[in-house]
Amino acid sequence: MQLTGLLAAPHFNGLVGSVVSGPNENGRFTVDLIMSDDDVTREHQTKAFKAENLLVLVDEQPGDGGGGLRAAGNAGVGGAEATSFRNARR
Fold first, then answer.
1. What domain count does the chain have?
2. For 17-76, how does the pLDDT look when each residue is reduced to its tens digit (9 = 90+)?
3. Element (H, E) at 87
4. Would you tell me how many other CB atoms lie within 10 Å of the CB of residue 65?
5. Coil, strand or helix at 25
6. pTM above 0.70, yes or no
7. Residues 32-39: contacts with CB within 8 Å, 24+ apart?
8. Which of 6, 33, 43, 61 could form a Cys-Cys staple with 17, CB 3.0–4.6 A?
9. What does the pLDDT look like over 9-31, one tens digit per residue?
């Protein structure tokens, strides 16, 4: 997933990570974020975010013209038109 729409911490927008758990009692999901990644080191941070700030990414398969990750958009996860983590979980 990718972070999007954060106003209080805009420096996190665009970062990619994985949901570790959630939602917690405050409705937030714990996310393991990749803060930096190069050939030598990878830095992670774990933070909690609201569902509306989590954009589901879909892994495109080789040969489908994509060659990477893309937002789920109309691809739908579980039959929903997923534009955020909240929509994808419905």
1. 1
2. 999 999 999 999 999 998 887 878 888 999 999 999 999 988 766 555 555 545 553 233
3. helix 85-88
4. 7
5. coil
6. no
7. 33/3
8. 33
9. 999 999 999 999 999 999 999 99
